[in-house]
Amino acid sequence: MATAHIIDGKATAEQLRVGIAKAVASLAAEHGFMPGLAVVLVGEDPASQVYVRSKGKQTAEAGMASFEHKLPACTGEAELLALVDKLNRDPAVDGILVQLPLPKHIDCKKVIEAIDPAKDVDGFHPLNAGRLATGERALVPCTPAGCLILAKSAATSLAGMNAVIVGRSNIVGKPMAQLLLGQDCTVTIAHSRTRDLPAVVGGADLVVAAVGRAEMIKGAWIKPGAIVIDVGINRVEVGGGKSRLVGDVEYAAAAERASAITPVPGGVGPMTIACLLRNTLEAACARRGIAMPEV
Length: 295
Ligand code: GUN
Known about the structure:
295 residues; Rossmann fold; 6-stranded parallel β-sheet; 3-stranded parallel β-sheet; 10 helices; 41% helix
């Protein structure tokens, strides 16, 4: 049985980070500035704490300034909005990321809409979402941006492909659809109410799985030769008090049919922070009227 090419997200992300670090160094030499990223974490969610720590570390390694704001879970909405406003006005801050999820008493939509769209390195502000949808230059959400880089690495062109995205979130599914339309794919977004999901997935030349349910997409559904990009990171118990990470796709069975597939971990995950750094660089250049270097 043929086995798929394993798309190495870790190596691709590393390559991207090296390119970004070089661009940051040359911008510092030529224009005398350092891009800055502010990350705001409200509360003590352990997964969020891990993400925020890696973001801070990788931002510094890329030669950028990292500003971390850790607020207690009881922080009020007005206090968070005041911090966002302060960061919007801070010239040393080019990118603002408010880690999600936020505690329930804070209206996440209000916070996202308060971020200056020019500093919205998550690409979640409606202005950036609208720009992406209308094909204008926009700050693009990091996870789908990373997925696109990986999908493109597995084919000479994505044009004309039937792309099926499973999951319709604002963070992954919807922006992914826009990015793949931009690559001239024929795009379907499937979701929890989709009829006959196996048949819909079975028609895809490119599958992007972003449902957040362990191994929900079965290997037998995958069309032979398809490209499979798995966004899922699900922790499953394996007995004896041990657990392991699995994606949204039944990996081993899918790898026997796909032409290329991302592993979990080591696929989409590492790309997200690399794309966040790229967005920060892009925002820093755009705010100063400097052309974004090729990375
Ligand atoms: N929580 C999990 N992923 C993300 C992300 O990409 N951005 C933000 N802001 N929060 C997240």
